[in-house]
Amino acid sequence: MTKRFDGTRDLRRAVDRLARRLPEPLEDLAWISYNYLWSWTPGGPELFTTIDDHRFRLAGENPVRFLLNLPERDLLRTATDHHYLERLDTVARRMETDLARPSTRVTPAGPVAFLCAEFAVHSSLPVYSGGLGVLAGDYLKESSDQALDVVGLGLFYRRGYLHQRMDRSGWQHEYWVEANTGQLPIVRVRDAEGQPLKVKVPVWDSELSAQVWRVNVGRTALFLLDTELKENTPLERWVTARLYEGSHDIRLAQYALLGIGGVRALDAMGISPGLFHMNEGHPALASLEIAAQTAAQLTGERPALEQLLEINRDRFAFTTHTPVPAGNETYSSEEFFRVLGHSIDEMGIDREQLASLTRIDPSSREEPLGFSPLAIRCSRTTNGVSRRHGEVARGMWQPLFAGRAGADVPISYVTNGVHLPTWMAPNMRELLSQVLGHDWERHAHDANMWHHVDEISDVDLWDARCTMRRRLVEMIRSRIVVDRLARGEDVNLAVSGLDAFDPTNLTLGFARRLATYKRLDLLFHNVDRLRDIIDHEQGAQFVIAGKAHPLDNEAKTVAQNMFSVNRDMGLLNRVIFLEDYDMRVASALVAGCDVWLNLPRPPMEASGTSGMKAAMNGSLNLSVLDGWWSEGYNGQNGWAIDGSTLDDPREQDERDARALYDLLENEVKPMFFARDSNGVPVVWLTRIRASLRSLAPMYSSARMVDDYNERIYRRH
């Protein structure tokens, strides 16, 4: 049996180093800090916030950085706090029990290797941008919860994704912050000689070297490749500098490293996957590396590339997240082979054969080259991420399956889900535990269990919702003052943010990537109607957040127009834009908002998961019937806007904006403010219970991972 060098012993050494800095009674904090399981274990976050909540937030909620920089007096004080030590022991034993469970192998041939360009595990590890990464992070956590034999593989972006700063006009500016690897809960994987384990991938006209980092996500190992090595040129070191770099050359090099380098890294660590799950098309070149390995093992004449891919088709599954052709990256033949030609040639693959497999029309010499067609052709299954997206994907990729009717195109769907322990507010988890049982999260996909939410009293449910809203308002007030001061606003305006929002008002959230198809501008379509909804005795307040890609000037203009309209309305403390949207902000928003808005231009929302997270916290969705909401909405668990399309986008925007305002004025606000003699909105709470009953079991990551196991991984 091949010995693994997968970073396990390197983690032990890192834990030992941190433990030596801690007083003996606190030594368990060392190994806890190096496993993100703490972040979703009840009582885990409180182990750090109890010591010093302010310092923990300043440390980016990174426990390793927090402990390394904590004054010795605070450590000594904590080490003599018997109540704290009891809580530490409880969390440590709970985590040890979880980690000690035997693993379940999903495929008989080996673990599932989940390849993705981004992973949103925790805000302290900023190698994610948005929904794709959040889905990947939730998948790893759920795999850990179910004790499945899964490994994740991605890239370690030293500067992560962009940080956002808005100027006074509302124009987005970007900046990046380089990670300090010595203070992150990650370790460099080393080989048998104790040297950093490295792989090489031919890119451009040279050999790109990459080292491997390991991150423990509960029981699941996540491996990240990194090119910040002295033997690389400055250009090569930049390959893993930033996520979704604008340069085509850099992105192609990233995808070569992810796909080809990912397979080689797993080989070097002694990990032999039974299945490669490619989450989006970025890692599709993994199929070429496996094909080249197969060819090297065969005797006689080398088969054509299509035959090699066919031999290994059962080793690959592909999930597409993009419902429009323009969203699937393509490259000219010249730039594709300028970056990747060296790798292709070294693997003995004919360039023309490969080019034909990366085009929708294999015979075309003009069509650009893309990774999604290759991923579809080399995988045993392809799936979209919602029922409607599956339909859209079948129509979009039908040309790859000549002679098949749209309904017969072999593209299925597995609707996304969200990791409840990560995204549910602690007080909501505690409330549900009282009626669902202490280990209810292990059975989150059991629909019958969720009928017990009817046993929660109106007062308790409303108190929980009010607590979450109040905490959100407190966070907004503190952040908006800093945001305004940073962009040079008048001090009086900045300080007025301390009174922003009313913790008793109807609070609506719109937070997601600022792409034009998300239609943030729909909210401001009719300023007079919007002002009337907000500026009223029983008023509403809106919190908005999101980042535009650095090259997406259209999206930046939408945000800038929002700032302008908001100033003209004179309601700056009732419509708030929170800068630098990340997982920490998202957690507060999905918990504290009463209504979650989603206004995509259909059918461009593949799935969407933020509304699922909001629903788990008792927030109600008001969304266009697109993505997951088109299958989740049942008429009683939220509100819906027509998801049909019109030929004229302006006419459709007018129709959808009118529907949005009508719902807010005639249904949402009246229901929220209709109170009984105890001040409780009874009908509103009835809708919350309907939302929890119908959505929580269907849109948890437990159901999603079960679907992948049964319908994709164990497919016969």
Characterize the structure shown.
The protein is an alpha/beta fold. The chain folds into three domains: 92 residues, no CATH class; 292 residues, Rossmann fold (3-Layer(aba) Sandwich), CATH 3.40.50; 280 residues, 3-Layer(aba) Sandwich (Rossmann fold), CATH 3.40.50. Helices cover 43% and strands 13% of the residues. The protein is built from 27 helices and 20 strands. The strands form four sheets. Strands 1, 2, 5, 6, 7, 8, 9, 10, 13 and 14 form a ten-stranded mixed sheet that branches. Strands 17-16-15-18-19-20 form a six-stranded parallel sheet, sandwiched between helices. A two-stranded antiparallel ribbon has the order 3-4. It is globular and about 85 Å long. The mean pLDDT is 94.
